[in-house]
């Protein structure tokens, strides 16, 4: 199947996030990748240089992360990365898994042949990006696959709730996590098969496992990088 005959390449989506949201996403990924550690101060200048923005959206983005509990504002000193635990990571992924699983159940009951065709095309695009070693495109195609399932569920309120959870998680470096891409290449086709057969319970179970397993792999990477040395779980 020719992917571009069915869907637009997801990494060509027009427009950018609002600048503070882009800053928050960038710093969130620095934190969850272990590139910055709890207790480290986040200097504004390197962030402005990395993203090509002024200091105002950087401060606004960091304040948003303060609201998420990922950073603390130390008076007269600046923003510092807050402590977070393995359980914090698991809790975020658990919430995502429950909502995503429910959406997958509903999608399996309602999905149309046209939506199945789009999911097939997205799987093709994902596989092509994997074979090309294009990590950014791998993430984009993977995100688009999940978004198509959420649209098929036709449950706007539930999708909005999921969006409020997902924004607390990083979304652009999963392709670099050992085992994540290989697992997705196996798990996404299984999800598609369950949706195609309208197997609602199976689709929900597969989706929940898919997301929770991703949490375990992320925690494993952070452990290998020594993020929690000397800390309890």
UniProtKB/TrEMBL annotation:
The keyword Transcription regulation applies. It comes from Streptomyces viridiviolaceus. InterPro entries: GntR_C, TF_FadR/GntR_C, Tscrpt_reg_HTH_GntR, WH-like_DNA-bd_sf, WH_DNA-bd_sf. Keywords: DNA-binding, Transcription, Transcription regulation. This is GntR family transcriptional regulator. Residues 17-84 form the HTH gntR-type domain. SMART domains: FCD, HTH_GNTR.
């Amino acid at each position: 199947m020719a992917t571009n005959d069915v869907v637009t390449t997801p990494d060509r989506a027009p427009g950018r996030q609002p600048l503070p949201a882009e800053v928050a996403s960038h710093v969130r990924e620095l934190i969850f990748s272990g590139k910055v550690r709890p207790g480290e101060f986040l200097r504004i200048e390197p962030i402005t240089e990395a993203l090509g923005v002024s200091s105002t959206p950087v401060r606004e983005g960091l304040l948003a992360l303060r609201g998420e509990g990922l950073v603390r504002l130390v008076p007269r000193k600046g923003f510092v990365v807050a402590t977070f635990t393995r359980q914090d990571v698991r809790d975020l992924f658990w919430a995502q898994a429950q909502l995503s699983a429910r959406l997958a159940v509903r999608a399996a009951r309602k999905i149309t042949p046209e939506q199945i065709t789009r999911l097939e095309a997205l799987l093709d695009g994902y596989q092509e990006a994997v074979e090309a070693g294009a990590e950014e495109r791998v993430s984009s195609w993977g995100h688009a696959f999940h978004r198509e399932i959420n649209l098929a569920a036709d449950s706007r309120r539930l999708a909005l709730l999921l969006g409020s959870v997902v924004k607390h998680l990083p979304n652009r470096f999963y392709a670099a996590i050992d085992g994540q891409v290989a697992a997705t290449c196996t798990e996404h086709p299984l999800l598609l098969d369950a949706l195609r057969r309208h197997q609602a319970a199976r689709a929900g179970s597969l989706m929940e496992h898919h997301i929770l397993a991703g949490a375990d792999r992320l925690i494993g990477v952070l452990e290998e990088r020594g993020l929690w040395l000397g800390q309890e779980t």
